[in-house]
Amino acid sequence: MRTLLLPVTLLFLLLHASCGGRGDEAAHETPSASIITELDMKSFGSFLASGTTTIVQFGGKRCLPCMEMRSILTEIGMEHPDVRIGIVFWEDSPELFAEWNITVIPARIMFDEAGNEHSRHRGTSSKDEILAELQHLRLQK
């Protein structure tokens, strides 16, 4: 556990500096809580074991590109209710960032119905790019 503490702390400091350390708390609430589920160490595994295609966004609460991605993922979730969408905030769950080797935010991992990683993307994406990635996953079934 001690060996993980230093890398996680460094990751926290790096991400904190890159996305701004100040901001209004209300400005980063997860939109449409019924569409996007906030995940932590306890809920992450069971969320992936849901038996459906899953998108997990890794980001920061005050990170502007992350907020943009949450809006896009909310739209996708409303249009595709068969896709589960989760979000992990580095401020709340830095251990998941270390476990999944997330070093840049925003980052997105798409999982198939069995909970296997299908693809990952670092940075922002357009809605069309995410939908194309989702279509590609569905064609591989």
Overview of the structural elements:
This protein starts with a helix and ends with a helix. The protein is globular. The model is unreliable at 21-32 (pLDDT under 50). A hairpin with a 5-residue loop joins strand 4 and strand 5. Helix content is 43%, strand content 18%. The chain contains five helices and five strands, in the order H-E-H-E-H-E-H-E-E-H. It is of the alpha/beta class. It has helices at 2-18, 41-48, 64-79, 94-99, 127-139, and strands spanning 36-38, 54-59, 84-89, 107-111, 117-122. The chain has a single domain (2-19, 33-139), classed as Glutaredoxin (3-Layer(aba) Sandwich). The protein has a five-stranded mixed β-sheet.
Question: Could you provide a short overview of the structure?
Answer:
With 141 residues, the chain is an alpha/beta fold.
Helix content: 40-55%
What's the rounded overall pLDDT mean?
82
CATH topology: Glutaredoxin
Order of helices and strands: HEHEHEHEEH
The top level CATH class name:
Alpha Beta
Number of helices: 5
Major sheet: size, sense and barrel closure?
5 strands, mixed
Spatial separation of the terminal alpha carbons: 38 Å
In the CATH classification, which architecture applies?
3-Layer(aba) Sandwich
Q: In terms of per-residue confidence, which ranges show pLDDT below 50 for 5 or more consecutive residues?
A: 21-32
Q: Biggest sheet, strands in spatial order?
A: 1-3-2-4-5
Q: What would you call the shape?
A: globular
Which structural class should the secondary elements be placed in?
Answer: alpha/beta
> Using DSSP, what is the number of strands?
5
Number of structurally distinct domains:
1
Radius of gyration: 15 Å
